[in-house]
Here is the input.
Amino acid sequence: MMSHWYLECFTKDRDSTKRIPLDRFPFVVGRYSDLPLSLESPDVSRRHAEFIFDKVLFLRDLGSSNGTYVNRQKISDFQELHHGDIMHFANMEFRLIHEEFQEGFDLDATQFGISELSSLLPEGLQELQELLDKSLTTAELEVIVNSHDHSLFGYEILGRGTHPQLPQKPIPLFHIAESGGMAVKLSEMLRDRGVEIAEKFALDLPFFVNTHPRELDDPERMIRSIFRLRKRFPSMKLVLEIHEEAVTNPDTMLDLKRRLQSEGIMLAYDDFGSGQARLLELVQAPPEFLKFDISLIDCIDKASPLHLHMVETLVKLCRESKIMSLAEGVHSAGLAEICRNIGFDLLQGYFFPFQFPGR
Here is the structure.
């Protein structure tokens, strides 16, 4: 194995990141066009700072006009660097990445102008990197009940962060992670930690685990992640949730379902109805469970007859296709009763208190 250091930054449109390998030392940053990293910002000095490697990596300011900063602290001498550090060269911000890889991996140094780079990384990326490096995560369990009598059916595992400077809930965490290209890593960590916690309860019930839509960009990686979980926890009843927006190809979903079934793992389509309902995939690659999004359920007691009829038709389609239908976001007895009358098999929401089997 070999190791290498990178500088990471965002492109101007902020939908992707660029990595610049620190492939020779001293590695000088500045405005001169012949430098390893040339930044065409008027705020950056001609020779602004340099990276030096001597068993560990250092950064040194070269007398710049507007300063060099590490983790928002101005440096005046050699500063030792670590994975995840945030550096500013005047107004330009970069994150330091240290990775190991096999020999022969291709490293291409790249020069960027100010027109190609975003000047700032989103707040929280350094803290999120620390969360990932130190596995600062936990999980909560939310009950899923049978609609006819509210008896316990199973649980959904909900990942939570425990970094003191970051939100706990997954949605804001993923907003940060998506901006830094770390959504898949975060999803895998929350899932792994959640199953590890849930397994300690030793319950013979289904546990629903989440995925992030970006995981379907690399189905093989996702499968490997799930199969590692199965190997660690061979007796757990796992249900893999795939978000509706990621359910875009019937052939992909059929292959995924087949491979999950080979390991005794069930499939659920999550947040159905939150965007473009994937009816073709639902028919051609039916899951074991279909989770109706909260947007379809939340105000169903005040919904128009057309809205109500649409939901009833979809639930009927599930029943005819031998798919268990689940209503998310049930927060009152009234909603629970309406969902039961519509024909939902399962209900989930904060109306139902946490419970163990037989209690």
